[in-house]
Amino acid sequence: MPKIAFLFPGQGAQTVGMGRELDSELPAARSLFDRAGEILGFDLRKLCFEGPAEALESTDVSQPGIFVASLAALESLKVSQPDVVEACQGAAGLSLGEYTALVFAGSLDFEAGLKVVQARGQAMQAAALATPSGMTSVLGLDEPAIDELCRRVAPHGRLWKANLLGPGNIVVSGETSALAQLEPIASELGASRVIPLKVAGAFHSDLMKPADDRLAEALGSTAIAPPRIPVYSNVDAAAHSDPDDLRRTLVAQVVGGVRWEDSMRRMMADGFDTFYEVGPGRVLTGLLKRIDRKTRCTSIPAR
């Protein structure tokens, strides 16, 4: 018997049109977008379906949008393959996706999860606006080389390793002045490619510290239950069951690095061999194949 886990995408997976077909075909998906508009106080459906892309890329819009679109994709899986949903024994989510995973696992209900995601997105957007900054994917360097890259770039601005996604695939966050000097130094160290990401700021870095208190306050007033299945944390690749531990790791995640490769390897070591990426895009499927080509992963899109 396969051991099944669900993976939920994070910011950057947003595309104009995500969830539109599900909204028109599936009453449960339509209900999610209806409720989201009431909870958020703005028309999330219109922004997700029609854009413009610039508005959807804003952190305080893209995070709720991906969260709701991913849950809409989950509703489609409940209809098309209910046995798969029933058989799922674990979950993880990349950054924002960890909140979606916790809703699926029963730790958060939809409304509470969406309100926290909204607070998180607003806090991170405010922190991003405070300092010109961004994120860049660096391909072809291992973690020690990324540490050296951060040291060499330091005279130009602050730079942090943010997302450890897979072998030779690490995302750095930093001030715009540091990112502007990144490519030649990364190439000198052996990087094969440097790709700026479409995000509003330097997420998972010290520049997000102003967002900590607001997120901690939002989580502190939110009911969180022990998950019914393991949800693997971005911060330490461990599955936590105590609600206070979940709050702690979710706050730490905003400033700390995302150890995605470690999380996937931990899940595989725990016997998971069949994965479903539930939500917009196919990024997590691609990452998983680079970590272990033998692992099965199926994409359930937010079409």
TrEMBL record:
The keyword Transferase applies. This is Malonyl CoA-acyl carrier protein transacylase. Its EC number is 2.3.1.39. InterPro entries: Ac_transferase_dom_sf, Acyl_transferase_dom, Acyl_Trfase/lysoPLipase, Malonyl_CoA-ACP_transAc, Malonyl_CoA-ACP_transAc_FabD, Malonyl_transacylase_ACP-bd, Mitochondrial_malonyltrans. It is an enzyme of class 2 (transferase). The lineage of its organism: Bacteria, Pseudomonadati, Planctomycetota, Planctomycetia, Isosphaerales. Keywords: Acyltransferase, Transferase. GO terms for molecular function: [acyl-carrier-protein] S-malonyltransferase activity. Residues 7-303 form the Malonyl-CoA:ACP transacylase (MAT) domain. It catalyses: holo-[ACP] + malonyl-CoA = malonyl-[ACP] + CoA. It comes from the Bacteria. The active site is at 95, 204. Belongs to the fabD family.
